[in-house]
Amino acid sequence: MEIIPSQVVRDLSASYAPVNEENEAIRAVEVVATTVECDVTIEYCQQGSIMGALSAFCSIVFICVLMMKIKRIESSGNHCPVSSDIQEFKRYHDAVKEVLHKKDVITDVSLLKARVLNQIHPSEQCCFLLQLGRFYLNNVFPKLEFSSMKEQKCLNHLANSVLGLKIELKHCHSTMRCACGHQSHKIMEEFRETFYQMETEAAIVKAFGDLNILIRWMEINYPG
């Protein structure tokens, strides 16, 4: 067996020591890097959970605010003031109503009743007018004709005024300020049912004649 001098052993030990320390240092760096990576991942997951919870909370708050707004609209007054000139409606209607009044032979039936109109909740007045205006534009005005050009012109002006009112109310409805509830729906259903139970010409004449009831109601609820 060859004996290695102690000095050589010390030299060999010294030459290998740095290599071992370097390996240990590398392993230490890897451990630290792994720990940092885990910490970052945990922190990211925690941030994701917080953001998810915050997003859900914001959604709930938004829905609650929206529901409160809808309830406030339903319980408060009319949120759709109109800029249409109601007196203009009245002038055009008065200009031709006498001609049709002679044809209105059914005196025991009314399509529009002041008592019923006065019971409409302010929050549903807009919706009622919107539906009624649409009905007149589709089923009443197009079927009326006058031999006098002057009277026909007044009818056209009245129809255009109602169309302008309908557009204004439709815009209000699209912004959630024109609530449609059970009351306005029921009144319109009764109006349509009575209208279609009558003979066509008689129903059209009656509907036009009853506009004076509607105009008086609008003067009270939509003052200029």
Shape: elongated
* SS element count, helices: 8
Rounded Rg: 40 Å
The third-level CATH topology of the largest domain is Growth Hormone, Chain: A
Supply the number of structural domains.
Answer: 2
Function: Immune regulatory cytokine.
Main location: secreted
Subcellular location: Secreted
InterPro entries: 4_helix_cytokine-like_core, IL-10/19/20/24/26, IL-24
Tell me about this structure.
This protein starts with 5 loop residues before the first helix and ends with a helix. α2 packs across α5, α2 packs across α7 and α6 crosses α7. It is 77% helix and 0% strand. The longest helix has 70 residues. With 224 residues, it is mainly alpha-helical. It folds into two domains: 75 residues; 136 residues, Growth Hormone, Chain: A.
Question: What attributes does this structure have?
Answer:
224 residues; mainly alpha; Growth Hormone, Chain: A; 2 domains; 8 helices; 77% helix; 0% strand; elongated; disordered N terminus; IL-10/19/20/24/26; secreted; disulfide bond
